[in-house]
Automatic annotation (TrEMBL), chain A:
InterPro entries given in the database record: Cyt_c/b562, Cyt_c_II, Cyt_c_prime, Cyt_c_prime_subgr
Post-translational modification: Binds 1 heme group per subunit.
Protein name (record): Cytochrome c
Any GO MF annotation of the entry: heme binding
Organism for this UniProt entry: Aestuariivirga litoralis
Domain of life: Bacteria
Keyword presence, Transport: yes
Name of a matching Pfam family: Cytochrom_C_2
GO BP terms in the entry: electron transport chain
Length: 152, 303
């Protein structure tokens, strides 16, 4: 009898451990995916900004490739914001708590970015690209100001 | 033999009284006097530049409860959260009743350069008077003239939400002996005019060191580690070092850094929006290009 209870507790303990480490792995994967997405966005900026500054010639193919890479890296975005990926936990993240306390604001900031990317994607020539780009840059800036922490 | 006689009791009481008296004297504000107010014709344009360099608006934002006040007007009242409590930075508009319209030039200089209110109380050093103390008083008066040109807004002062505030203010007075260096800024003749302008803007109005220089055990800026970065003043995260930005490859050169300060993350310069730097960058972007370049020239030279 006692051994049955002990076994039961042991099994439950193993299960709980397993579950929590699985959740931990999920949280870690989410945070890493967010970071990979942001890296791809940063790489996209590195392709576009030199054109805006006049340091490189306009190259629509390069822009489209960078956007496609960012879209691919960010495809799972909606599923990466679990409660266990908040700041202040065991895992390091530059995400701010405001993402979870102001979901509407975060949504709006993401929406501004999506809209700006779509406009850059739709731009067919240099002039329309240069007209569309500032909103994209501002969307990075605006979201980071509210929802990204200082260096960790 | 009794250890605690009436005599030792008296001696202890005397020591305690002396200690209190010393605390009271040492923690008293030490203000500028009328003789320190320069004869000066205010230059509004200069005041506007230094107002932006000082980033006044970032803390003196209008309270969200003030309907119809543009967020570029320093009407104050918006909460400023600090590790010691919540402050409500005051109304800098010339409103006579709730702003600084009635202040004398000496009162303004004392608040900005010595951290002393018109009532003679020590101000919490969230107001970076520790940096403003190095400014030219003429420049501070120009900022006052610029503020006086703004439309007055009624925005009553709200007491800071800090435990034992009067005692804390006295403590600040004591702290000023180690934390407040009132040496006026001096140019370095070996450096360019632009570098010197940058040095002044960074170390005076810009008060960059308040966050980018770590503090010692007395919470005073540790000048031996100037600009080496430190913990974030709001308690979470770090403030990056400004030393060796070019050598470490963060920026290609001083011109690149100037461009970063002007455009920030909107032009892909990573790390210039979060941790409060977004507001700083927006304020800097209001400066003339030559001043932005000057700041960059100086910062880029930090090793």
């Amino acid at each position: 009898m006692v051994s049955k209870i002990a076994m039961g507790l042991f099994t439950a303990g193993v299960l709980a451990l397993g579950l929590s480490s699985a959740a931990m792995a999920d949280a870690k994967a989410s945070i890493e995916a967010r970071e990979a997405c942001m890296k791809a966005n940063g790489a996209m900026m590195k392709v576009m900004v030199p054109v805006i500054k006049g340091q490189k010639p306009y190259d629509k193919a390069a822009n489209d490739a960078a956007i496609a890479a960012a879209e691919a890296a960010c495809a799972g975005w909606a599923g990466w914001w679990g409660e266990d990926t908040k700041p202040g936990g065991d895992l390091k993240t530059e995400a701010k708590a405001e993402i979870w306390t102001d979901p509407a604001g975060f949504e709006a900031a993401g929406g501004a970015y999506m809209k700006a990317v779509a406009a850059v994607k739709a731009s067919a020539d240099e002039a329309s690209f240069k007209a569309a780009f500032p909103d994209l840059g501002k969307s990075c800036q605006g979201c980071h100001e509210k929802f990204r922490q200082a260096d960790q | 033999m009794r250890l605690f006689t009436r005599r030792t009791g008296l001696a202890l009481a005397l020591i305690a009284a002396l200690g209190l008296a010393a605390f009271w004297l040492l923690s008293a504000p030490r203000p500028l006097t009328a003789a320190d107010v320069p004869g000066h014709t205010p230059d509004l344009a200069n005041g506007k530049i230094l107002y932006h360099a000082g980033g006044c608006i970032s803390c003196h934002q209008p309270s969200p409860e003030l309907a119809g006040v543009e967020n570029t007007v320093p009407a104050g009242g918006a909460p400023l959260h600090t590790p010691v409590g919540t402050l409500y930075p005051m109304n800098l508009t010339p409103d006579a009743a709730t702003g600084i319209g009635q202040w004398t030039d000496l009162q303004f200089l004392n608040a900005v350069m010595r951290g002393i209110s018109p009532e003679g109380e020590n101000l919490i050093p969230a107001l970076p008077y520790t940096s403003y103390a190095h400014m030219k008083p003429e420049d501070v008066l120009d900022i006052r003239a610029y503020l006086a040109s703004l439309p007055p807004v009624t925005s009553p002062e709200q007491e800071a939400d800090i435990t034992a505030l009067p005692l804390i203010r006295r403590g600040v007075g004591l702290w000023k002996w180690v934390g407040l260096d009132t040496t006026p800024w001096k140019p370095d003749p070996a450096q360019s005019e632009s570098w010197n302008r940058g040095s002044y803007l960074v170390n005076g109005p810009g008060h960059c060191q308040e966050c980018h220089t770590p503090r010692n055990v007395f919470m005073a800026l540790d000048e031996s580690r100037a600009f080496a970065g430190g913990p974030h003043p709001e308690g979470k995260g770090k403030v990056p070092s400004l030393r060796g930005l070019i050598e470490r490859g963060r920026y290609t050169d001083a011109a690149d850094l100037a461009s970063a300060l002007k455009d920030g993350e909107a032009m892909g310069y990573d790390g210039l929006a979060s941790g409060g730097m977004g507001q700083v960058q927006r304020n800097i972007s209001q400066l003339p290009e030559s001043d932005i370049q000057a700041i960059a020239d100086y910062i880029a030279s930090l090793k």
